[in-house]
Amino acid sequence: ASAVISMKIYQKTEKEKSSARCRLAFSKAIMSVRLQACERILLFLERNKPTQVVTRLLAPQLSARELQHECITSIGNEFEHNFTQQLYVSAKVWNAASLAKESAIYLINKAFTELPENASAQDLALKIIEQGNTAADTNSIKAIEELKNELQQSC
Question: How much is the pTM?
């Protein structure tokens, strides 16, 4: 009888150890995926600041309207490409990233409306760069800070 009890205790202990190893492995895997998601969101936020996106997409043959369209399309495509990353960050971080995206699009549209109808892409780029430290950049910086805070809390 004592051998059966000892065997049951041993089996229970081994099952608990195995379960703990599984939880640890799962936790490590999730942390790795979360870190990759944070890296992708950070890259999205940096690449889609209005001054960054307009500089990256500026081509001399484009009109202001064409550059506006290219910028907004690029921001939208990158956001959609990273949409699933919201599974791995808090709603607060994802909402901050979404706000940064919307602010960038708003700034690009606003700058475009302030230009004459026949403006060039360079005119639009200069208008966006002139606006410098805007709400769009501020919202990107806030989202980056939220992301960093969340990452530091989870380590």
Answer: 0.81
